[in-house]
Amino acid sequence: MADEVLSQNEIDALLSALSSGEMDANQLKEEEKEKKIRSYDFKRALRFSKDQVRSLSRIHENYARMLTTYFSAQLRNYVHISVASVDQIPYEEFIRSIPTMTVLNIFSMEPLNGRIIFEINPNVAYAMLDRILGGRGTSLNKIENLTEIESTIMSNLFEKSLDNLQEAWSSVIEIDPMLEEFEVNPQFLQLVSPNETVIVVSLNTTIGETSGMINICIPHVVLEPIIPRLSVHYWMQNEAQKERKPGEYEKLTKNISSTELELSVVLGETRITVENLLELSKGDVLKLNQSIEEPLIMKSSEEPLFYVQPGSQKNNVAVQVIDEIKGGSSDDE
Q1: Structural domain tally of the chain?
Q2: d(CA 104, CA 117)
Q3: Is the pTM of this model over 0.70?
Q4: What keywords are annotated for this sequence in UniProt (predicted)?
Q5: How far is Cα 80 from Cα 75, in angstroms, rounded to an integer?
Q6: The last residue of a domain, from among 200, 235, 270
């Protein structure tokens, strides 16, 4: 590359800065000696952009809120789940980062290829199991000694939460997740090659007084077909497509117009004591708070709509609409 040529004004400004002490010549030499390169680890290739990682984070923040509600109802205990981090790392690094004995649920994500891993920290897993079996939610790490019944209970608990996962991903793609395997030793899992990039979503999980992590490992091969949908451009385009098509407004208006609505008219109200209520007999008269000279109010679902006056039509009790109520409830009139 050819050397950059400075103009006379630039040369004068540089000499002036050096002479005044604003710039240090030795510092300039050191900066020139520094290598203008950036290290890149081919074993840790970044295959997702920051924009795509942010989209995955938004999806799982919504999923974490759903899981909080789901586990709170299932365990009948205080549960709080939130996204701690969303990182892209090699699959081998993920396997090394989790305990040697832990709870692993492997799910398929039809129509996407490949499978994803839910790793539940033993502290969290046993707090859930203890709570389901009637305990206080105390954690006890004995993953290597899980009975078949305990394994089935734990698998069913997470299998029933798949509706939440399906709903969280519905803004990107309609998936049909299904539990494929239950494992406790991560060394027996080899979903992808060790250097394959995976997205790891770490969820901070608190159940009662016990806390731990739930990690979701999503290989690149699973997300590859939908990577374009994880960009801001896709989200904006998708929102634009949600605008009403020609004729939809008229169709919606027609359907609403044919909908039946229940109306009610109250002749008046009064308040009495329970003692007076028990003493009521035939012929007693109750004074209502409604004057016969004032119109009645027609309501729908407690919302005032019209001023009406009572009457009859063909031997049926009826009301005649006098005026429309505008501006909200009758208290504002």
Answers
A1: 2
A2: 7
A3: no
A4: Bacterial flagellum, Cell membrane, Cell projection, Chemotaxis, Cilium, Flagellar rotation, Flagellum, Membrane
A5: 12
A6: 235
